């Protein structure tokens, strides 16, 4: 049995002393293979890794081939989509360009089914037919059925389409469609809000063509402005657009810079210039049913001014228009719009006026 002193004797230690650095260093000619021999299991591991790497490369190549096929299919789908859109546009062009094209609804519905709803709506509202929209040509060429069928596929008119429709209504002097589609500019957003708040029905404008279809271009416009005084006192200015004689016009009532009420008319964009001669009549009403004499209407004249040309100022659709930016032919009024007992509104507070216009 070893004694305590023998256990701690350097010469008789039960553990071997670690070899010195010089003893574990290998000769320069030694290789890793000689010092650490590879077993069969290690060789198979390296072979597996190399085979897996080769398999991944093959897989990547196959994936690239599949990706190319997918891209080609997508390109074919996109090409087919373009061809579909062009085919639909061709049918739409035929509908709006051929007089009395029949039948409209089945062809339009078939065209709509070939595209997504939003795509078909955009196609009808883009200026892709001779610089204008399909809606424009439906109006200009008198295609009422086509316009109605097209409109059924448009949830809301874009600003581009609305501007094109303004131009179409102006070109055809179609005041009815202009009002129906609510294409007018806003002269006073405060009055617009006020009218809705008061539950006031929309103002009414009736236009009658009085021209002789030869040299005389003349029309009569009748205005019925409801809750006239209440709205004018609150909003400060009233105005509405109407279409006549191949132009869009403003009818305006406002406070002038001189502190006097004014009433007048102006041209609205994109109307061509005009040389107008005008007469305005504001109807008077009796306040008492048993009145023996009918009060006299308020009549105002504007004669032709040699060399004067009325022009339209450009403005953006659906944006409030500033009266100060317009070229206005006006008549100054006395202070009767402030008189609560004025004879120039009826018992319901409606102003009735008639504008007779001759263009030279």
List keywords for this structure.
single chain, 360 residues, alpha+beta, five-stranded antiparallel beta sheet, four-stranded antiparallel beta sheet, 12 helices, disordered N terminus
Polypeptide structure, described:
The chain is of the alpha+beta class and about 350 residues long. The protein has 12 helices and 9 strands. The protein has helices at about 5, 20-25, 30-35, 40-95, 105-115, 115-125, 135-140, 145-150, 160-170, 175-180, 190-200, 230-235; strands at about 205-210, 215-225, 235-245, 245-255, 260-270, 275-280, 300, 330, 350-360. Strands 1-2-9-6-7 form a 5-stranded antiparallel β-sheet, with no helix packed on it. The longest helix has about 60 residues, at about 40-95.
Tally of DSSP β-strands:
9
Beta content comes to 15-25%
Task: Decide which structural class fits the backbone.
Answer: alpha+beta
Would you tell me the overall average pLDDT? 82
Shape: elongated
Q: What's the main sheet like?
A: 5 strands, antiparallel
């Amino acid at each position: 049995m070893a004694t305590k002193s023998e256990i701690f004797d350097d010469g008789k230690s039960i553990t071997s002393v670690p070899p010195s650095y010089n003893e574990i260093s290998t000769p320069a000619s030694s290789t890793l293979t000689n010092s650490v021999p590879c077993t069969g299991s290690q060789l198979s591991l390296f072979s597996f890794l190399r085979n897996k790497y080769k398999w991944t490369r093959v897989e990547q190549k196959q994936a690239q081939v599949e990706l190319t096929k997918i891209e080609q299919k997508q390109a074919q789908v996109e090409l087919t989509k373009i061809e579909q859109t062009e085919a639909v546009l061709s049918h739409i062009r035929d509908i709006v360009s051929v007089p009395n094209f029949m039948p409209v609804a089945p062809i339009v519905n078939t065209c709509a089914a070939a595209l997504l709803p939003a795509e078909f709506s955009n196609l009808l509202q883009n200026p892709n037919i001779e610089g204008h929209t399909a809606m424009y040509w439906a109006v200009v060429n008198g295609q009422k059925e086509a316009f109605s069928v097209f409109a059924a596929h448009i949830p809301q008119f874009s600003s581009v389409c609305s501007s094109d429709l303004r131009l179409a209504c102006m070109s055809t002097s179609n005041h009815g469609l202009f009002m129906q589609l609510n294409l007018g500019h806003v002269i006073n957003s405060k009055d617009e809000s006020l009218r809705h708040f008061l539950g006031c029905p929309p103002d009414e404008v009736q236009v009658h063509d009085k021209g002789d279809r030869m040299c005389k271009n003349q029309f009569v416009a009748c205005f019925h402005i409801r809750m006239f005084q209440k709205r004018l006192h609150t909003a400060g200015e009233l105005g509405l657009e109407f279409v006549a004689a191949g132009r869009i016009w403003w009818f305006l009532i406002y406070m002038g810079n001189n502190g006097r009420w004014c009433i007048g008319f102006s041209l609205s964009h994109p109307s061509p210039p005009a040389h107008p001669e005008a007469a305005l009549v504001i109807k008077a009403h009796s306040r008492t049913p048993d009145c023996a004499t009918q009060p006299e209407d308020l009549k105002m004249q504007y004669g032709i001014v040699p060399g004067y040309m009325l022009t339209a100022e450009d403005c953006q659709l659906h944006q409030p228009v500033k009266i100060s930016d317009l070229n206005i032919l006006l008549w100054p009024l006395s202070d009767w719009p402030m008189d609560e007992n004025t004879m120039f509104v009826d018992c319901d507070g409606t102003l009735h006026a008639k504008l007779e216009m001759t263009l030279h």
